[in-house]
Structure prediction request, 61 residues.
Amino acid sequence: MAKSQATFMKKQLEKNRQKKKEDKEQRKLERQQNAGGSDLDSMMAYVNEFGEITSTPPEKK
Prediction:
């Protein structure tokens, strides 16, 4: 009886490993598809004369 339980646990562990591997691959593909558009200009933030953070650069006077 102990042998069958050990075999069952091995199968369950292997299923869990396979599921984690598939999930990781899926997340990797999603990251690759959504990776475009992360350029420097979109990450810039500016501080205006009131100390507030804005996404637009200050006007030159």
